[in-house]
């Protein structure tokens, strides 16, 4: 990627997926019958950077796109959201990924990933990383998808090793089995990444991939035993469980919301989590804000452009629910 600029100003650098989300503008309609779509910036790591930027943080993304018009669109969208795109570089010969979804509220949102023959974001190369910028960022965020294929796997682990837990280092467990040639081979790479991270975040399926355990409290303890300082387990309708190595503990129920599209809620949660860690809030306050940010996005159709501002999060928390 390109040479480093002043890196100490970055509150958050994320590394991982980027792409174009094409979401149907009709809800409850099967994809074959959908007649119109909205085009949005997408990709979990990218959405987290956008979410934190909407909360006032200085953020950047490390990723790769195709050298095509969709790649140009993604750069324009990142800049519009105030996210630094200097480490998002093109890969000749590979198309920018596109993701379609179907929207069947409140709990069915099938995803269709078009990442063939290979997604450019899996071509992130360790030799092109600005490792000093990654080390100096106040928070660094990586995802499980980055471990699914080379050279992204080596790059992700190299970035984590160079950072050496010099600050909050978040591993979004981000389990997408369709991205793995052999999903059963994932756990050793997850184990290696956990050795270098201070925060692990995942839902019940994801913590099970990382630890072999599905019961939330047992999985959280296993994540702590694997090396992290803070384990965050998203439990769906039961809310979120967070356990810190120092004994601090929070279990926060979900904020009531009328769900329109659940996709992107986890990324909003992640951006708010990073914001709370940067602010030095206590664990329960961090989790409540993250829950609220996720609920707000779940009430909206899109993902990146739906990420809430801090006043919107505070309003939802004060109301005790996401306003309709």
Distance between the amino and carboxyl termini: 43 Å
In helices, the fraction of residues equals: 25-40%
Element-by-element helix/strand order: EEEHEHEEEHEHEHEHHEEEHHH
What's the name of the CATH homologous superfamily? Ribokinase
What's the main sheet like? 9 strands, mixed
| Tertiary shape | globular
The CATH architecture would be 3-Layer(aba) Sandwich
The helix count comes to 10
Low-confidence stretches: 1-7
CATH class (first level) name: Alpha Beta
Radius of gyration: 18 Å
State the CATH topology.
UDP-N-acetylmuramoyl-L-alanine:D-glutamate ligase
Please list the strands of the largest sheet in the order they lie side by side.
5-4-1-8-9-10-11-12-13
Overall domain count:
1
> Strand pairing plus helix content: what structural class?
alpha/beta
State mean pLDDT (0 to 100 scale).
95
Total DSSP E strands: 13
Taken as a percent bin, the fraction of beta residues is: 15-25%
Pfam family, one: PfkB
GO molecular function: ATP binding; kinase activity
Domain Carbohydrate kinase PfkB: 13-309
Protein name: 5-dehydro-2-deoxygluconokinase
Characterise this structure.
This protein has 324 residues and is of the alpha/beta class. The chain has one domain (12-319): UDP-N-acetylmuramoyl-L-alanine:D-glutamate ligase (3-Layer(aba) Sandwich). 34% of the residues lie in helices and 21% in strands. The chain has helices at 44-54, 69-80, 131-136, 152-163, 187-195, 204-211, 216-225, 265-279, 283-298, 310-319, and strands spanning 12-15, 19-24, 37-42, 59-66, 83-91, 98-101, 111-114, 139-143, 169-172, 199-203, 230-234, 240-244, 249-252. A nine-stranded mixed β-sheet has the order 5-4-1-8-9-10-11-12-13, sandwiched between helices. A four-stranded mixed β-sheet has the order 3-2-6-7. A hairpin with a 5-residue loop joins β11 (230-234) and β12 (240-244). α9 packs across α10 (310-319). It starts with 11 loop residues before the first strand and ends in a 5-residue tail after the last helix. The model is unreliable at 1-7 (pLDDT under 50).
């Amino acid at each position: 990627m390109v040479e480093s600029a002043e890196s100490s100003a970055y509150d958050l650098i994320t590394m991982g997926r980027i792409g174009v989300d094409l979401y149907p503008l009709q809800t409850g309609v099967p994809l074959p019958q959908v007649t119109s779509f909205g085009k949005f910036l997408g990709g979990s790591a990218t959405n987290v950077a956008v979410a934190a930027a909407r909360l006032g943080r200085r953020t950047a993304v490390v990723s790769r796109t195709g050298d095509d018009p969709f790649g140009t669109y993604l750069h324009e969208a990142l800049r519009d959201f105030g996210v630094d795109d200097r480490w998002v570089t093109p890969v000749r010969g590979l198309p920018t990924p596109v993701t379609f979804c179907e929207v069947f509220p409140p709990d069915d949102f099938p995803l269709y990933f078009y990442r063939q023959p290979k997604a450019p974001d899996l071509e992130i190369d360790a030799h092109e990383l600005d490792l000093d910028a990654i080390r100096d960022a106040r928070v660094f965020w990586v995802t499980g998808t980055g471990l699914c294929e080379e050279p992204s796997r080596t790059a992700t682990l190299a970035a984590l090793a160079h950072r050496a837990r010099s600050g909050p280092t978040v591993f979004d467990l981000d389990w997408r089995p369709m991205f793995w040639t052999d999903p059963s081979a994932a756990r050793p790479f997850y184990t290696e990444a956990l050795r270098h991270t201070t925060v692990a975040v995942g839902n019940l399926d994801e913590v099970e991939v990382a630890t072999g355990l599905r019961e939330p409290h047992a999985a959280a303890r296993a994540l702590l035993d694997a090396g992290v300082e803070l384990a965050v387990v998203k439990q769906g309708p039961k809310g979120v469980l967070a356990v810190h190595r120092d004994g601090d503990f929070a279990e926060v129920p979900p904020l009531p919301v009328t769900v329109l599209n659940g996709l992107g809620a986890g990324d909003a949660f992640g951006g708010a989590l990073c914001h709370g860690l940067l602010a030095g809030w206590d664990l329960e306050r961090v989790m409540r804000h993250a829950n609220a940010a996720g609920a707000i996005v779940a009430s909206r159709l899109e993902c990146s452009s739906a990420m809430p501002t801090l006043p919107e999060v505070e309003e939802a928390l004060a109301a005790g629910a996401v306003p309709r």
